[in-house]
Design brief:
mainly alpha
Length: 107
């Protein structure tokens, strides 16, 4: 091995320029961990940034859906109150009509 430096203190910090670590004859084959690929890390990092860029849009969409639900619930409550008010008015008018009919029959 002609490499200058050691494993702990390599001559260069660029991994491509360092000597490859060949397994020794004493090590059983397959005992070492497989080489790590950085493509998956780069892809996940890229996806993460894309997702992070879309977070404000997703939050705004969720906020608008919540506001729409609140508005619909309030609208439904207003309609219910108006319907009850009209029902009470109709009952009063009906009672007044029955009284008027009863007075007409009595005379």
């Amino acid at each position: 091995m002609n490499a200058i430096g050691t494993i702990d203190r390599p001559h260069t910090h660029d991994p491509k320029k360092q000597d490859p670590m060949n397994p020794s004859a004493r090590e059983p084959i397959g005992s070492a961990t497989p080489d790590v690929t950085t493509t998956g890390a780069n892809d996940s990092r890229q996806n993460r940034t894309r997702e992070m860029q879309l977070i404000p849009e997703a939050l705004a969409r969720a906020h608008m859906q919540e506001r729409r639900r609140e508005a619909e619930a309030e609208h439904q409550a207003v309609r219910l109150i108006a319907a009850r008010r009209m029902q009470r008015r109709a009952e009063r008018v009906s009672l007044r009509a029955r009284r008027a009919l009863a007075m007409a029959v009595m005379q």
